[in-house]
Amino acid sequence: MSDALVRHPRTAPTRFHGLVTVSPTMHAVFELVTKLARTQASVLIRGETGTGKERIAQAIHELSPRAAGPFRAVNCATLTPELLASELFGHVRGAFTGAIRDRPGLFTLADGGTLFLDEVAEIPIDIQARLLRVLQEKSFVPVGGTEPIEVDVRLVAATHRSLRAAVEAGRFRADLMYRIRVVPIFIPPLRERPGDIEALTWHFVDQFNETSPRRVEAISQDAMRALTRYGWPGNVRELRNVIEYAFAVGDGPVLAHADLTPELRGEGPPDDASTPTTARDLERRRIVQALDEAGGRKGAAAELLGMSRSTLWRKMREHRLA
Ligand SMILES: Nc1ncnc2c1ncn2[C@@H]1O[C@H](COP(=O)(O)OP(=O)(O)OP(=O)(O)O)[C@@H](O)[C@H]1O
Ligand SMILES: [Mg+2]
């Protein structure tokens, strides 16, 4: 184990509506977001948990002509079909037991603004039909009601899994999929963004330095190595939690390997989802690490891996890293 220390980098990362990055892919996402925010197009954000999908949705709203209007969000995976219908479209008094007065739904509350539908792939099929109608006709009828209500809402949706796969499995309407993903945005997982683990580690260290009694000035090299080699199934949210943990359990100006969570120290349970299990996973991991070490330069990464540039290109495409 080495005693060498990693210091705060001098160059500042890019900041965009609360998101911090040094990744070229994320810069491209920010550019796309800035452009499409000015339009009315429906956006579908795809990315693993904790990659910043909700922050991107908020950025789209903040950069849009609707910025002064409301931003509303709902997680479609956490409500029963009945509750979700009433949450989205509202209900009229007497619509069901307990509906003692009219209640506006999110489409009404988001009028003139943006509605963010999280985990959109989980919407039950009968609600999908009603959603399609709102998107096509810009009006809907509340649960138990008769009079249509007109609204002007921009839809931004997110999913952690492929909507197309849900369509193929018969769980999602193809016509609705085309309506809501006029512009698809893909946010890559943290492990595929060379440099971002380190940049975000420092970002969160700076944050916790402001608010906690501990002051971290450097990170031990073996702690940084453990951070950059980990698979981050929970992405940026998990990284933030790991840094918060380190501030809570350790002391002194150096964030040490011992301050990391058991998963990071390699003491996680054997069935840990982040542990590579197949040769394919291992290969993918080696490529990501080499790209990271080479600062994204493919020639240098290929050299580190002992393969030709063209093999690296092909493998990157196979692993969807290109
Ligand atoms: N690039 C980033 N820079 C700084 N903070 C980030 C970044 N990406 C995500 N975060 C933070 O990580 C947390 C998770 O982000 P967010 O809720 O937007 O993720 P999500 O993709 O919607 O996750 P889920 O699928 O679990 O709902 C938030 O606190 C967010 O501010
Ligand atoms: Mg979310």
Q: In a nutshell, what does this entry contain?
A:
The chain is built from 13 helices and twelve strands.
Describe this structure in words.
The chain is an alpha/beta fold and 322 residues long. The chain has 3 domains: 1-15 and 190-275, Helicase, Ruva Protein, domain 3 (Orthogonal Bundle); 24-186, P-loop containing nucleotide triphosphate hydrolases (Rossmann fold, 3-Layer(aba) Sandwich), CATH 3.40.50.300; 276-322, Homeodomain-like (Arc Repressor Mutant, subunit A). 42% of the residues lie in helices and 13% in strands. It contains 13 helices and 12 strands. It has helices at 24-37, 53-62, 81-89, 106-109, 125-137, 163-168, 174-180, 196-211, 221-229, 235-249, 279-293, 298-305, 309-318, and strands at residues 5-7, 14-16, 19-21, 43-46, 71-75, 114-118, 139-140, 149-150, 154-159, 183-186, 218-220, 254-255. A hairpin with an 8-residue loop joins β7 (139-140) and β8 (149-150). α1 (24-37) runs parallel beside α2 (53-62), α11 packs across α12 and α12 (298-305) crosses α13 (309-318). 32% of the residues are buried. It binds adenosine-5'-triphosphate and magnesium ion.
